[in-house]
């Protein structure tokens, strides 16, 4: 049975495989603002944005969790290893661990003179050993299975609540950034005003000294 991997979270967020958490958060924030379905009125585009938004959220939840991210990376390595091994594996009809051993029988020129037919050849069949390289299923590796396309109403409500909380957190950070930029701008303006007053004061002093 083929192993199914989840969509590539690195590709979904547009980050490299060695990206750090701050870079992942920054990419997630930009994509959330870009593809949030609440910003689209058209029903067709809204469904498309909803799908994109869910993929971004799934990718962020996986990569922001260090344990799940490590599990995913190991899963990809195992998948590639199994893919390489699969190139040399015989067809399903041929099992490399199962073979037949026949005992040697004397060759006769005719069976017509024999009262009894030759005994059937003895066949020894070995059992296939357990595959040590068997890769665990995705459901066994990840704590959370892939989300089903058909969600219950309670799950959708929970998702909406989480989305609202994330949006509030994003708006809060935006407001803090704007407030910080405003304070820095006012600070620079005040410093510029102080320097101008100092220069004017020095000019007046020089004028009075010349008199």
TrEMBL record:
Region ranges (Disordered): 86-211
Basic and acidic residues bias spans: 134-146, 157-211
J domain ranges (all copies): 8-76
Coiled coil: none
InterPro entries associated with the record: DjlA_DnaK_co-chaperone (IPR050817), DnaJ_domain (IPR001623), DnaJ_domain_CS (IPR018253), J_dom_sf (IPR036869)
SUPFAM superfamilies: Chaperone J-domain
Domain of life: Eukaryota
Pfam family, one: DnaJ
Protein's name in the database: J domain-containing protein
């Amino acid at each position: 049975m083929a192993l199914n991997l989840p969509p590539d979270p690195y590709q979904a967020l547009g980050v490299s495989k060695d990206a750090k958490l701050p870079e992942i958060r920054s990419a997630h924030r930009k994509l959330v603002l870009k593809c949030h379905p609440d910003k689209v009125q058209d029903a067709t585009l809204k469904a498309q944005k909803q799908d994109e938004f869910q993929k971004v959220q799934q990718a962020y939840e996986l990569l922001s969790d260090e344990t799940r991210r490590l599990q995913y990376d190991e899963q990809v390595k195992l998948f590639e290893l199994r893919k390489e091994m699969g190139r040399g594996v015989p067809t399903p009809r041929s099992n490399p661990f199962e073979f037949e051993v026949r005992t040697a029988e004397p060759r006769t020129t005719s069976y017509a003179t024999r009262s009894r037919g030759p005994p059937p050849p003895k066949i020894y069949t070995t059992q296939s050993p357990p595959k040590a390289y068997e890769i665990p299923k995705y459901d066994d590796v990840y704590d959370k299975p892939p989300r089903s396309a058909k969600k219950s109403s309670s799950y959708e409500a929970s998702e909406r609540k989480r989305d609202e909380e994330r949006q509030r957190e994003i708006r809060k950070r935006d407001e803090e950034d704007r407030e910080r930029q405003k304070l820095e701008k006012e600070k620079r303006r005040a410093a510029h005003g102080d320097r101008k007053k100092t220069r004017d004061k020095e000019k007046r002093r020089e004028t009075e000294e010349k008199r």
